[in-house]
Structures are given as C-alpha cells and as structure tokens.
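Give me structure tokens for this 186-residue protein.
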Amino acid sequence: MNHEHHEHHAPAHHAHAQHAHAEHAHAQHPHPHPGAGAGAGRASWATAAKATLHCLTGCAVGEVLGMVIGTAFGWGNVATMVLAIILAFFFGYALTLRGILASGVDLRTAVRVALAADTLSIAVMELIDNGVIAVWPGAMDAHLSEALFWITLAISLALAFVVTTPVNKWMIGRGKGHAVVHHYHH
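Here you go.
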C-alpha cells in the first residue's frame, strides 16, 4: 500500500521538478531560441547589418579589383565577372579571417570559421550584385571611366546589402554565420 502511495506522488513530484527546471532555464535564458523576442530581434538586426556591411566591403573590393584586372588585360565580360566573383569571395573571407586570427586562433580553425560565417552571405550578395549588373542595360559593357559602371555597381551593392541583411539575421539568430565569428572577439 505504501509503495502504491509513493508511485502516486512520484509523477507529481517529477512534474514539479520539470516545471522548476524549466523556470530556472527560462530565467537564465529568457528566450530559448536565439533571436526570439523583441530585444533579441533588435540586436540581431544591428548585428546582421554590421555582418552584411563587413561582407559587402570585401565583396566591393574584390569586384572592383576584378573589373580593373579584367579591363587591364582586355578580358571579355564573362572572364572579368568570374574573376570579380572569385576576388569578392577572397576579400570577403580575408576580412573575416583577419579578425579571427587576431584573437589568437590557429589558421585552420580561422579558415573553417570564416567559410562557415561568410559563404552563404557572400554567395547571396554576389548573386544579387552580379544579377543586377547582368540585366542592367549597358552595365556589362560599361568601362571603369564611365559613370554607368559606378552607378550600377553602387545600386547593385546597395540592393545586395538589403537582400543579404535578412539572410544574415536568420543565420545569426540560429547561432550560425557571423554569430560564430563573435565567439572569437571576446
């Protein structure tokens, strides 16, 4: 009889213990999923914008350098665009790598973190950026000395920023992308 009585109270005690544990966990982490809640959402947008601007800087440097090199060697549009995209990825990764390596991490770890942090961001950015340039009338044939080249580049990079920021917010909110990089800045 006493044994049955113990079994009757055990589930209630277990449920109370789970509830207390859940309240404790909630007190330590008010939002069980990163990015949940209004406060985290606001912080995530700022962080996402900063991460996107970081990628955009590397992409812009790579794109312009690729265009300069392609033009200097007299390459066609496709070869020049391919070089610009390769250099955009290179400089995008390089900026992230520089920050991670400064924290004292070994090169192999830094490369893995940079690849994880920036690949999707740079890919989306390059897709939007080069897509705009490809469909803008005359933009593919514009030379570095022409206003059309710089206007199209500025508009395409601005559009890439607007499209990529939500992607970065989504990734950071799930502990991916530049959220990984921030572990190395402390």
